[in-house]
Structure formats: C-alpha cells, structure tokens
Amino acid sequence: MLQRTPAARRGENPRASSRKLARTVAPTGRERTFLEDELIVTKTDLKGRITYANDVFLRLSAMTEEEALGAPHSVIRHPDMPRAIFWLLWETLQSGKEIFAYVVNLAMDGDHYWVFAHVTPSFGPDGSIIGYHSSRRTPDRSVLPIISGVYADLKAEENRHESRALGLEASVGLLQAQLKEKGMPYDEFVFSL
C-alpha cells in the first residue's frame, strides 16, 4: 500500500504529493500483473493531467482517486521508458491520430507493470482535440523481451548525451532509423511482434 508522504499527512494537496512521489520512488524490481479481462482506463486533459481513472488503474498504480485526479499522467512513468516513445506518442496524438504502444509503468510503491496501450485523442463538438483517452490491456508476454531490448537501446542512446534535448533527439533518430529499416511505422511494428 502507498505510504503517505509527510506533505500528505499534513493535509497538503495530494496531487502535489503524487507528483513529488513520482520523482522519488525507486523501482523495486517487483512486477505487478493484472487479469486478461481487466482493462485500465484513464482520461486526461490537453496537458496530460488525469481527469478520470478507473479502479484497475488505481489498484495497479497504488494511488487513490484523490491522488490521481489532477496529477500528470507522467506520475507513473518508469525510469526505463525511453523518452523517444513518449515523444512519438505525443506527436501522434497531437496530429489527431491514435497510437498503440507497449509501456512499462511505475506504481507509487516502486513496483512496475507492463501494459499494451491504445491511446486516442478525444474530440469536442467542433472537431478540436479536448483531451486524451487511454485503454490498456495485458501485454503479450512473449513480446516483452523484444520490446525491452528496443527500449533499452533507446534509453542507452538518450543517456549517452549530456544534454537531455540532444539525448531525446538522438533517441528519436535511432527509433526512426530502426522503423525505417523495418519498413513500417511503430504501430505496425508492435503488431508484427
């Protein structure tokens, strides 16, 4: 169970506590799993702040609803996830398209869990993007070693550079080169595994 920070015990904003926890929680190396018939669902606003989280998300992320709502979705970002994948995700969503991706998330207690995510923009009556919707299923376990290897290469490329901006640029370049070599976009790549 989530240990309350001193700020939360003092009655301070739980969302601020969630954001602080995300930067200080160390991965335990323990993996959580969920059932194949379970679905993780979250919705966010245009800035990626959580506006809805279902019970499965709350359980796996070790968060309460109060902690989740208003927190940036990046609060569950695992340090092993390459920034290039999130760059790709945001580029795709902001262009009005959906994306499928494998993601490893970090729960507030340090455990991690893998998901196969389907993220889509949500549109308002005028056709403009008003937020984002993400549904996550259990991943194909046989694909995780392949995805983990790709992500480790991207992460290593990011870490080779002193500047975060240069690291991201190099990692995105590596991802694009790998996809070009395979002759397919990321979505097709993950479905081909």
TrEMBL record:
What Gene3D superfamilies does this protein's entry cite? Answer: PAS domain
User: Domain PAS fold-3 spans what residues?
Assistant: 51-132
Entry-linked CDD domains: PAS
Signal peptide residues on this chain, from the entry's feature table: none
Q: Where is this region: Disordered?
A: 1-25
This protein is called PAS domain-containing protein
